[in-house]
Design a protein that fits this description.
295 residues; mainly beta; Lipocalin; 11-stranded antiparallel β-sheet; 21 strands; globular
């Protein structure tokens, strides 16, 4: 079995979840408006041989079934409706990666396609606890919907686990290591990582470091979100989650590099970050999963 298939199989079991949908804050719309919330039961089961089946049951709203097959050329993915099996979008399944030794995964379209709504879904988890975040863009490349998903295997999510994250929780310096998985399946472990948020006058300075690459950004409060230099937005969510995403996806003919980032405060002094990066051509380049501790 491939390592990617085995990593997905680590999710085997019954997961109880809470999904909250928001209109994404953007320039000119600074509120964080919850538009829907639903509970789910996700059943992840390993069938005979090389098949994994995922059943998502939304309480009172039907269910969806997917099957994943381990093939020599990679994973195959089908949506199942009765006896019918519809192949999954190859631009999506080709860019799904699961991190070995954890329940964490990164997914999203392999590349930006003009006129096609872009979706990124990432999850960080360990033991029987998982947090997922989704950013959904419209056909014009503007963020439309954010989804915060909180899940626990074998039991409902507790009120304590579902507590909201605050910016104060992220303030200060964090340091640790990360694992990077590239689009060509090259893996780098033990990557030195650092994250820092501090006050800088009437703004905040946000510093992120992976290995020798350091990114510095300025953030200012805009309603329910923080607007970062470079056209990004940081939003804190329930489940001690945060999402950082571009205000606008880069159009054709320009540098199309960008990133979508998911943060989970696993413990008061422990931060997990999952950063999905796209290159100047708008193709997925790599994803980095960190494990950082407050300094």
């Amino acid at each position: 079995m491939s390592s990617r298939f085995e990593a997905l199989a680590a999710n085997e079991g019954v997961w109880e979840g809470v999904w909250t949908y928001y209109r994404a804050p953007v320039p000119g719309r600074t509120t964080l408006e919850a538009v829907n919330q639903r509970r789910s039961t996700l059943i992840f089961e390993r069938l005979a041989g090389d098949c994994l089946r995922q059943t998502n049951r939304y309480h009172g709203q039907g269910e969806f079934v997917w099957e994943y097959y381990d093939r020599p050329g990679g994973l195959e993915w089908f949506e199942v409706k009765g006896e019918e099996r519809k192949p999954g979008d190859p631009n999506f399944i080709a860019a799904v990666r699961a991190f070995p030794g954890s329940l964490s995964f990164t997914s999203g379209y392999l590349r930006l396609l003009e006129g096609v709504p872009f979706v990124s879904e990432q999850g960080v988890g360990e033991g029987d606890c998982k947090r997922r975040g989704m950013v959904m863009y419209d056909q014009a490349g503007q963020p439309a919907t954010l989804i915060a998903i909180r899940e626990r295997r074998g039991a409902p999510v507790t009120a304590e686990e579902d507590a909201p994250l605050t910016l104060a929780d992220l303030m200060g310096s964090w340091q640790g290591e990360g694992i990077a998985i590239s689009a060509n399946d090259q893996t780098v472990s033990g990557l030195a990582c650092r994250f820092h948020i501090s006050e800088a006058g009437d703004a905040l300075e946000v510093v992120s470091q992976f290995g020798e690459t350091v990114t510095r950004r300025t953030a200012r409060a805009e309603g329910a979100a923080w607007a970062l230099s470079g056209g990004q937005r940081l939003v804190v969510l329930p489940g001690r989650l945060a999402l950082l995403y571009p205000d606008q996806l880069p159009p054709p003919g320009e540098d199309r590099s960008f990133s979508v980032e998911l943060y989970w405060l696993a413990e008061p002094t422990r931060l997990r970050r999952l950063v999905r990066e796209y290159d100047p051509q708008g193709a997925w380049r790599r994803s980095v999963l960190t494990d950082e501790h407050r300094q």
